[in-house]
Design goal:
- The protein is α/β, with parallel strands linked by helices.
- The chain folds into two domains: 2-131, 3-Layer(aba) Sandwich (Rossmann fold), CATH 3.40.50; 141-404, Hypothetical protein af1432 (Orthogonal Bundle), CATH 1.10.3210.10.
- It contains 21 helices and five strands.
- Strands 2-1-3-4-5 form a five-stranded parallel sheet, sandwiched between helices.
- Helix 3 links the parallel strand 3 and strand 4.
- Helix 1 (13-22) packs across helix 5, helix 10 runs parallel beside helix 13 and helix 18 packs across helix 19.
- It starts with a strand and ends with a helix.
- The structure holds fe (ii) ion (FE2) (2 copies).
- One fe (ii) ion binds at residues 231, 235, 265-266, 351.
């Protein structure tokens, strides 16, 4: 994310660059009002804030402010006016024209950093930090390759075995899982090919996904990491159960995404804790005393929740749109696009069921409500609940065994 400084003399930009980088943004500049508008157009969607110098002859800060705020595309970008001779009426004039904040020149760099973070709010600062993705894990190519093939009918078990065999660590992990009490047959499995034959295409695909995802996220930690993975696995399996029970009502084109969507739905929680552990820990500690659930607390105190953060990472990883929507809207399935709604609803309901069946990963985080239109979409009613719960309990045991191997 970028901050645009409009300054014709370029004086003081050296310091400005350092200050802006400490806030997590990249500084870009324009030397006239006209150039500023061109830059905003070119960088549409990437500029988080504009710093406008009021008094310089070529930039004509006030005119530029009017132009930015008069343009529907740029109106929502916050502007801080920098001015050497503020007096109250001038400041009023700036606010009236839509400026979000004013700062008197000369200012010290600390004041500017504080003004930027105050103007953007926590949400803006978090998004800026996310944009500097250097400390976020990158998507392993094998995950991207596998996700692309998820719904390809021509993708065979042989293709999958070859993909897995290229990765020694992944192969070892899959053999460990295939030989675990959750899966093991009568004899020991010693090759990926035998594992694939024994377990079947869908099962080996799911196991590969878990092994790839857990190792690519191994640099991220969170309290209750073991429970986090049990929960994620259980949601993935439960989403599959719900879709299976829905039969034809669940679109076949989305089936291949169910498990991975469930597995990744709380990805943003890992990332949020990784980046803001102190702030997030305070929210965990507040859970027992509040009726709010974790995502509501995040939204209230950070201005952003783990669903949005997870969706951001999914976009960064170039994951398929289906997975990104499932992550983004698992707490608000009514916001999903109609084509993805069945998938998002399956993950939403699976998350609700698992959290209420003791497969949550944080205490006191039980969602009290679920989206009833999601339930209707699956044509289920209260009579189905006991059977679903029985299945989920079995799934939970399988998830526990599986998670222990991650
Ligand atoms: Fe969640
Ligand atoms: Fe969850």
């Amino acid at each position: 994310m970028k901050i645009l400084a409009v300054n014709d003399t370029r004086a003081g930009l050296g310091n400005l660059k350092d200050t802006i980088e400490t806030t997590g943004f990249e500084l870009i500049t324009a030397s006239s009002g006209q150039e500023a508008l061109q830059v905003l157009e070119k960088e549409y969607g990437n500029v988080s804030l504009v710093l406008l110098y009021w008094n310089e002859p070529d930039t004509d800060g006030y005119e530029t402010l009017l132009a930015i705020k008069g343009d529907e595309r740029f109106r929502s970008i916050p502007v801080i006016m920098l001015c050497a001779d503020y007096y109250q009426p001038k400041e009023m004039q700036a606010f009236k024209a839509g400026a979000n904040a004013c700062l008197t020149i000369p200012f010290n760099q600390k004041d500017l950093a504080a003004k930027i973070s105050e103007t953007l709010g926590k949400r803006g600062m978090i998004l800026a930090k996310l944009a500097r993705i250097s400390n976020l894990p990158t998507a392993p190519p094998v995950l991207v390759a596998l996700l692309q093939k998820l719904n390809d009918e021509n993708y065979t078990i042989d293709d999958l075995v070859s993909l897995i065999e290229e990765d020694v660590a992944l192969s070892a992990k899959i053999l460990a899982v295939a030989n675990s009490p959750a899966y093991r047959g009568t004899s020991e499995i010693t090759s990926v090919r035998t594992a694939a034959v024994r377990l079947g295409f869908d099962e080996i695909k799911d196991i590969s996904m878990v092994a790839i995802i857990s190792s690519s996220l191994s640099s991220l930690t969170i309290p209750n990491l073991g429970r986090f993975w049990i929960h994620s696995l259980a949601v993935g399996y439960t989403a599959q159960v719900l879709a299976r029970r829905a039969g034809r009502k669940f679109p076949p084109r989305l089936k291949g995404y169910l498990f991975t969507a469930g597995l990744l739905h709380d990805l943003g929680s890992l990332v949020l804790y990784h980046l803001f552990s102190k702030e997030v820990q305070i929210l965990y500690d507040r859970l027992p005393e509040t009726d709010l659930t974790m995502y509501q607390l995040e939204e209230e105190s950070l201005g952003i929740d783990h669903a949005e953060v997870g969706a951001y990472v999914a976009r960064h990883w170039k994951l398929p749109e289906a997975i990104r929507e499932a992550i983004a809207f698992h707490h608000a399935p009514w916001q999903a696009s109609s084509s993805m709604k069945p998938l998002v609803s399956a993950v939403h309901l699976a998350d609700f069921i698992c959290n209420n069946q003791e497969f949550s990963w944080i205490d006191d985080n039980f969602p009290r409500e679920f989206d009833s239109s999601s339930w209707e979409l699956f044509d289920m009613d209260l009579d189905d609940v006991p059977e679903i719960i029985d299945e989920v309990k079995e799934i939970g045991q399988k998830s526990e065994i599986f998670a222990a191997l991650l």
